[in-house]
Design goal:
heterodimer, A: mainly beta, Alpha-Beta Plaits, SH3 type barrels, 2 domains, 5-stranded antiparallel beta sheet, 4-stranded antiparallel beta sheet, 11 strands, B: alpha/beta, Rossmann fold, 5-stranded parallel beta sheet, 4-stranded parallel beta sheet
Chain lengths: 152, 302
């Protein structure tokens, strides 16, 4: 019997495809990139089979191209994400995400005594380790490690 | 002029630290100068710290400045539920500089970003207390004649003591050797040892005082607090090991001086006080001169 050959998420003509997003972090990626606030067509699939990630998600955003600086903001929740830049149904460029040197407003400081957990202060961190992500809080100067990382 | 605050000791370059220490020596020679005449300094103590507040207020008074503020959050608008954001934005309209102490970590950095006037962090929880570090550096430089290549002994609570952490990081700029004497439960945390490893600086850990103190240039004592121990029996076992007595100082070097951030409880026996190597009360006096120079530096007066 022949396997039905079809895409789980239909192709787009122009825009960006974000692949290899861990399924559990799909909505965090949507939130970080503000995809809930843009008005072009977006399709996504989640809980798709992936040899590398187990369950992955894929997002296809029509008519939108991201600056590296913006797309790297998802590195904390989707470190293995691959980007395909699509023009006229063709992949014209492939990109990977890179953990940036500093992170503003995405992660929560794990120190319960930090000012960012008491008042309306946007969190800010310096990335002191990129492999196993370690963030140093700009305010309380304490470290937040990967296993304690919470996305706001 | 660009507004400059002092939140963390790392906000100052090595040159700036040395400049502060030079200024401090000038104020020691001539403590009463009307450099802050016409200036209003706010001292906002969201948690009480009598010693630090009096030291700052003494420094301001000797320079002829006027003081506004509070010594306890319970008699300020904070008790009505005002945010730190609102307090700082309001008070920075009333003064030329804010000295603040707050129990929440990172509060001073946040304040320095929203305030119109410079902030001096007089302690933000367990995080930073840079004027203490600067006065410690001044005391070390004054008694040793240099900051280079000294052998620094740190004794007591090395795990939670923010004073020893800041001083250790600051002294590492001048290639110090460190000896850490503490109970097992209150050892210097790994992140700080890693910091020294990365700089290639030597440190040694001990569980009690040994003959090795004869090599010390500085013994920096801290309080071992009962509430830091998960097991009260552990505290009972170690509480007397970290008490410094006059008899233990016999073989120490002539230039050696004993420092303590104060308040002391019983970790330095009173029989040490008369020993010329006891320096902790002079250290507290140096705190006034150091704060005078920080105030004048941040206000662009010196």
């Amino acid at each position: 019997m022949k396997e039905p050959k079809q895409l789980s998420v239909s192709a787009i003509q122009n825009g960006t495809v974000i692949d290899h997003v861990p399924a559990k972090n799909l909505f965090k990626v949507i939130q970080i990139l503000g995809l809930d606030k843009i008005d072009t067509q977006i399709t996504f699939g989640t809980n798709l089979e992936s040899k590398k990630l187990g369950k992955k998600a894929i997002i296809k955003i029509s008519g939108v191209y991201f600056e590296d600086e913006d797309i790297n903001r998802i590195a904390l929740v989707a470190p293995d994400a691959k980007l395909n830049i699509i023009r006229d149904y063709e992949v014209v460029e492939k990109k990977v995400v890179v953990v940036p040197d500093s992170i503003t407003g995405i992660a929560k400081c794990m120190n319960p005594k930090c000012i960012t957990n008491f008042e309306h202060v946007t969190t800010k961190f310096r990335v002191v380790s990129k492999k196993n992500v370690v963030l140093k809080c700009h305010y309380c100067e304490k470290m937040t490690t990967q296993e304690n990382l919470h996305i706001i | 002029m660009k507004k400059r605050s002092l939140v963390s000791i790392d906000d100052f370059s090595t040159e700036e630290i040395l400049k502060i220490l030079d200024l401090t020596a000038e104020f020691e020679k001539e403590p009463t100068q009307k450099l802050l005449e016409g200036k209003v300094i706010a001292t906002l103590f969201f948690e009480p710290s009598t010693r630090t507040r009096l030291s700052f207020e003494s420094a301001i008074n000797r320079l002829g400045g006027k003081i506004i503020g509070f010594s306890d959050a319970s008699n300020s608008s904070v008790s009505k539920g005002e945010t730190l954001n609102d307090t700082i934005r309001t008070v920075s309209n009333y003064c030329d500089l804010i000295v603040m102490r707050h129990p929440i970590e990172g509060s001073a950095r946040f304040a320095s970003e929203i305030s119109k006037v410079p902030i001096i962090n007089a302690g933000d929880g367990a995080n930073q207390h840079p004027s203490q570090t600067l006065l410690d550096l001044y005391s070390i430089k004054k008694t040793q004649g240099t900051l280079e290549n000294l052998n620094i002994f740190m004794v007591g609570d090395l795990k939670y003591g923010r004073t020893v952490h800041s001083l250790m990081m600051a002294m590492s700029r001048w290639k110090a050797t460190f000896n850490f004497i503490s109970p097992e439960e209150l050892k210097m945390p790994d992140e700080f040892k890693l910091y020294l490893d990365n700089l290639g600086l030597k440190y040694y850990e001990h569980n009690d005082f040994t003959d090795i103190v004869s090599r010390a240039d500085i013994i920096y004592m801290t309080r071992v607090q009962k509430e830091r121990f998960s097991d009260p029996i552990e505290y009972e076992k170690v509480k007397n090991i970290y008490v410094l007595r006059d008899s233990m100082l016999k073989n120490t070097k002539d230039n050696m001086r004993i420092l303590h951030p104060l308040p002391r409880v019983n970790e330095i026996h009173q029989d040490v006080d008369e020993n010329p190597k006891a320096y902790y009360f002079e250290q507290a006096l140096n705190g006034v001169y150091t704060r005078q120079s920080i105030l004048c530096y941040l206000l662009g007066i010196k």
